[in-house]
């Protein structure tokens, strides 16, 4: 049985970002690393967007940037000036190619296209089983999300950010390529939090996603009928669908990290790296991957057993804010549009993005939170305290 120092079960965003940081740090050249994934990661299976106000190592693969974002509901529209932020788009495939290109130059890192069937810690080492082979290792980084562990508890509500998106090319020039529609709540809410998300890349091309923050998924037809209606409303009569994507991202304050052991850490959505109140994961993952590699680096000169993954995660005030937000949204899913509108109608967009990036001071937190409907949140706070 082949032994590795580190095995990544799942090699998507969080695993590749972590390995990328490990390579850049230069501190892991004497460690053997295996990346396992059931998918060869050679297709454009998702598009990531994130806001940023600093140059980053991903700048060269950003395919589109916007500095204005539209927020709308049935009563108002507001173009948010994002300055000093940009809203950036990265195609999944460009990210996979960039990281795998670097990995291919490292003798100590291997990628194997196999489906993981189980993994466990056995004293001082771990075992990973795939459909065709078994491996042992010192440490596992797991990003295979197991929804059952969240569903089998009631302490923390679980919503999903679920959507279907179509990349379309229209004959009519209807899009403003400088404005991303961040949240358009003017669609019927039907007792949920439902909105359109539109990312135009030219006057005739855009990704249009029908998105819900809610508990239950819809049938494929329901998402697609809404997209068709919206396209009609935009004044488009002739278009082709260039690509489709879909997603179901967990939104929960469940303490995934409590399932970490000395030698197995859950990363990505499986590790609670998804921002619970929005479903955004990309930006958080860039930060967490860096922190994790820094944490590992402290012990690279000592035995690998010196690194205890149970001590990696720290809970902060933002975890609690997200918890209250999800308490509100899961009890009153029909009021999501109202809550987001109260934030975006008058709020300072720069401050909101800083808050969502978990970089605000307590005073700044209050300025954002104050905009939310107070009764709902005070009630949620008392319910949690009591
Ligand atoms: C279509 C889509 C669009 C998104 N857009 C955004 C966005 O704009 N901004 C944002 O911040 N977030 C976005 N997200 C959310 C989040 O960023 C992604 O889901 C991100 O990929 C999560 O990273 P991860 O490492 O947790 O999971 P993944 O990237 O999904 O990686 C997990 C990997 O595990 C593999 N795997 C699963 N089971 C097994 C198994 N049994 N054996 C071997 N391998 C296995 C999968 O093939 C996958 O490669 C989007 C998600 C989707 C699906």
Distance between the termini: 52 Å
Question: What's the CATH H-level superfamily name of the largest domain?
Answer: FAD/NAD(P)-binding domain
Strand % is 25-35%
**How large is the radius of gyration?**
22 Å
What does this 3D model show about the protein?
The protein has 386 residues and is of the alpha/beta class. The chain folds into 3 domains: 2-62 and 91-152 and 253-311, 3-Layer(bba) Sandwich (FAD/NAD(P)-binding domain); 158-249, D-Amino Acid Oxidase, subunit A, domain 2 (D-Amino Acid Oxidase, Chain A, domain 2), CATH 3.30.9.10; 317-385. 29% of the residues lie in helices and 31% in strands. The chain is built from 10 helices and 17 strands. The strands form 3 sheets. Strands 1, 2, 8, 9, 10, 11 and 17 form a 7-stranded mixed sheet that branches. Helix 1 runs parallel beside helix 2. The protein is globular, with a radius of gyration of 22 Å. The model has no long low-confidence stretch (mean pLDDT 95).
């Amino acid at each position: 049985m082949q032994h590795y120092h580190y095995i990544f079960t799942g090699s998507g965003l969080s695993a590749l970002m972590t390995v990328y940081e490990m390579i850049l740090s230069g501190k892991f050249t004497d460690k053997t690393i295996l990346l396992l994934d059931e998918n060869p990661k050679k297709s454009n299976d998702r598009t990531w967007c994130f806001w940023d106000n600093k140059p980053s190592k991903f700048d060269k693969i950003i395919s589109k940037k916007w500095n204005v974002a539209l927020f709308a509901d049935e009563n108002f529209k507001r173009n948010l000036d994002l300055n000093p932020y940009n809203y950036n788009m990265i195609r999944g495939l460009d990210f996979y190619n960039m990281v795998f290109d670097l990995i291919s130059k490292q003798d100590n890192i291997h990628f194997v296209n196999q489906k993981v069937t189980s993994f466990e810690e056995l004293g001082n080492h771990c075992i990973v089983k795939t459909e065709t082979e078994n491996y042992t290792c010192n440490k596992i980084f797991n990003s295979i999300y197991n929804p059952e562990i969240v569903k089998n508890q009631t302490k923390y509500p679980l919503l999903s950010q679920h959507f279907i998106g179509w990349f379309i090319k229209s004959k009519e020039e209807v899009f403003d390529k400088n404005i991303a529609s961040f949240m358009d709540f003017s669609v019927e809410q039907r007792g949920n939090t439902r909105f359109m998300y539109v990312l135009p890349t030219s006057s005739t091309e855009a990704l249009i996603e029908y998105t819900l923050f809610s508990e239950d998924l819809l049938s494929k037809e329901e998402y697609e009928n809404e997209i068709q209606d919206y396209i009609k409303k935009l004044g488009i009569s002739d278009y082709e669908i260039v690509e489709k994507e879909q997603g179901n991202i967990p939104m929960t304050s469940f303490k995934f990290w409590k399932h970490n052991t000395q030698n197995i850490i859950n990363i990505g959505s499986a590790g609670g790296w998804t921002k619970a109140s929005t479903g955004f994961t990309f930006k958080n993952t860039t930060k967490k991957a860096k922190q994790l590699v820094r944490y590992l680096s402290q012990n690279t000169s000592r035995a690998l057993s010196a690194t205890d993954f149970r001590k990696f995660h720290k809970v902060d005030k933002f975890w609690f804010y997200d918890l209250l937000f999800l308490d509100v949204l899961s009890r009153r899913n029909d009021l999501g549009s109202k809550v987001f509108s109260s934030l975006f109608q008058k709020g300072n967009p720069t401050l909101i993005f800083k808050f969502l990036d978990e970089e605000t001071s307590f005073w700044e937190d209050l300025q954002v939170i104050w905009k939310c409907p107070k009764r709902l949140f005070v009630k949620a706070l008392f319910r949690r305290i009591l």
